[in-house]
Amino acid sequence: MDVRVDWRASLALVGTVLKYLSVAFVLPAGVAVYYSESVLPFVAAASVAAVVGLGLERLGDGELGGREAFLMVALSWFGVGIVGAVPFVVAGDGVIASPINALFESTSGITTTGATVVQDFETHSRSVLMWRQLIQWLGGLGILVVATAVLSELSVGGAQLMETESQTQAVHKLTPRIEETARLIVRLYVALTVAQTTLLYSLHVVGLAPRMTLYNAVAHAFTSISTSGFSPEARSIEAFEPVVQWAMIPGMFVGATSFVLIYYLTRGDISRLRRSEEFRLYVVILSAFIVTAAAILVSEATYSSFGENVRHAVFNVTSIITTTGYASTDFNAWSSAVKHLLFLCMFFGGMAGSTTCSIKTVRWLIVAKGFRRDLYKAVHPDAVRPLRLSGSVVEEETVRDIYAFVLISLIFFFALTVFVAVDSARAGVGIDEFEAMSASAATFFNIGPAFGVAGPMGSYHAFSDATKAAMITMMWVGRIEIIPVLVILTPAYWRS
Prior knowledge:
Layout: H1 7-24, H2 26-34, H3 40-57, H4 66-91, H5 99-110, H6 126-151, H7 161-165, H8 178-205, H9 214-225, H10 242-255, H11 259-266, H12 271-275, H13 277-299, H14 306-321, H15 336-345, H16 361-379, E1 388-389, E2 392-393, H17 396-427, H18 433-444, H19 465-479, H20 483-488, H21 491-495
Antiparallel strand pairs: 1-2
Helix pairs in contact: 1-3, 1-4, 2-6, 3-4, 4-5, 4-6, 5-6, 5-19, 6-8, 6-9, 8-9, 8-10, 9-10, 10-14, 13-14, 13-15, 16-17, 17-18, 17-19
C-alpha cells in the first residue's frame, strides 16, 4: 500500500511532546522531596518520557501537513496518557496501582475529565496527588494550543468558528508563527493560574480558609483554570469553607471562556466581548440553569437557608456547564428534578478556544440559527439567507460540519450508554439507566462526576475493567473533538 501520510513526522512531533513532558515531573518530584516522600515514581516516569520522546524525535523532521496533524493530535493525547500513568503504577499505592486504573486516572487527567477511580485518598502521597492535579493543568494547556494552532486550521467540527467568534481572520495570525501563538497562550494560562492561586491562598492568609494551604491553593488553581475537577480532597470543594467555593467560581468561568477573547480583553479591546454572540449565549445558558436550579432547591428547602441553596446552585451548575466537575455538596442527594437539570448541563460546555469540553456553545448557537433559518425557508423557499455569527457569514460547509459533529457526538454518547448499561449488568454493578447515561455523558463529554456510584463523592472504581477501557477510549475521543480519531481510521486517509 502506498502510504500518503508522513507518519514519521507525526511521531517525531509526538516525541517532542513526550520529551518536554519529562520536565513536568520536576514539580511533583520537588513536592516529594519537601514532604520526604519517594521521588522514584517521577524519576521513572521522566526517564520513560525522555527516552521514548528522544527516540521518536529521531524518526524524522518532515513537514507537518493536515494529514500528519490529525495523527499527531490523536497520538499525543494517547501517549501522554500512558506516560502519565507511570507514577501511579510505580508508587504502588491504592487502587490506582492497577494498570487499568492508573491509565483511567491518567487519561481522565490529561483529557481534563476529572472522573476518578480513587477512593482511598489518604493512602496516596502528596506528591502523587500533586501529579494528579498537574496532569490536568497540562491537558488544559495542551488543548488550548492544539485548538488554536491545529484543530481550527483543520476545520474540525466547526472549530474554525473560534476565529470568527473572536473577530479575527485566523487565530494563528495573532502572531506570525504558531510557536509564538503557543507562547502567548502559555503566558496567559500561567498568569490566570497564578491569579487563581493567589486568590485562594490569600483566603488562608487572612484566616477565612484555614484548610486552603499553599499546597491546596496550587492544586485547585491547576484544576479550575483547566476546567478539570480533580481535588486532593476526598470531598472535593465541600471540604472547604463557603468563601472558597465562591472564589473558585470565577476560575471555572474564565477557564471556559475563549482564551482568544481573553487575550483581546487584556489588550483593552472590550468591543470584541460586546460583539461576541457566543459569549452572550454562554452567559445566558449558564444564568438560566443557575436560576432554575436555585429556584428548585429553594422551593424544596433542600438546605436550611436561602443563601446556601443559591451557593450550591451557582457552584455546581457552573462546575458542570464548564465541564470542571467540582462539587460543593453531594448533589446525588438532590431531587430528581435538579439531577436531571444537571444532566442536561453536561451537553453544553463553554466557548470554543477554551479549556472546556462537551459540544460547546458555539455549535449549539449555529444549530439554533440553522434551524431558525430552515423554518424561515420553509415559508419562503426562494429566499437567500446566509447564516451569520457575530456579523460574519458562516460558510455552508461549516454549518454542515457542525450538524455532523453534534449528531456524531450524540451517537457516540448513546453507544457508550448502551455498552455501560449492558456490561454493568453483566458485571453485577448496580446502576440504573439514568446512572448509565450520566456516567457515559460525564466521561465522553469530559465532565467528571456523574450520578449513582460515580457521583461527586463516589468514584468509577466499581465499574468493570471492560467499561473502564471503553470510558478511557471515549475520554480520549471526546477530548480531541472526535474527528481526528475517525479520520485516521479511514482507508482514504492513508491512501488517497
